[in-house]
Design brief:
The protein is mainly alpha-helical and 205 residues long. It is built from nine helices and no strands. 80% of the residues lie in helices and 0% in strands. The longest helix has 29 residues, at 30-58.
Length: 205
Amino acid sequence: MEKDKKEIEIKLRSSQACVREGYQLYTGNFRKIFRATWWLAIVFAILQAAASALPVLLSPTLLLPALVLGLIAVILWLAAANRQLKKRQMLKPLRPLAFGSWFRHLGKVFIVTIVCITIVAILTLLTSLPTIILMAANWQSQIGMLNGDPSGMPDQIRWLSIGVFVIAGFIQAYVWLTMVPPFYLMKGTMGIQDKEKEEFNKKTI
């Protein structure tokens, strides 16, 4: 996301091109993105670890609050990271879009959103395997204790779980961040199309 005209040129792109070039933009500039956002990613990782710990280490009844906390953490992370990248001038300012513009380009928005969420879901599942294993082990232990069985878990499992949750959350921060470049390019395309439409309407009046 450096000021490289070839890489960040704002032009008309198809939905597929927005996704493809967005991910190329992300991977090609990952080091700069990481240096600009690592401290925000730590905050996100702590919030995600708290969300994971609520139903696992405290009570399964806290699953809904955990999901809400996790969703809020993702929204805050994407907003803060996007702002930080713009502040570091890794993303150029784009033409503001009217509210109705999102409805006019609903097809493009839908395709880019579905593809990005699918990719994020697959990557999140792969990076969350240690967390899922620990969750299953903790839940099985808690169920056994309710039935009168001994815990069977080592004393340090709580801290081990928290450590794994934090590390997984940090990795997932950059999985979620892969959505920013495709949406950035999509928004740029939508802005150009709206501008061309406005100019055409002025000429025909």
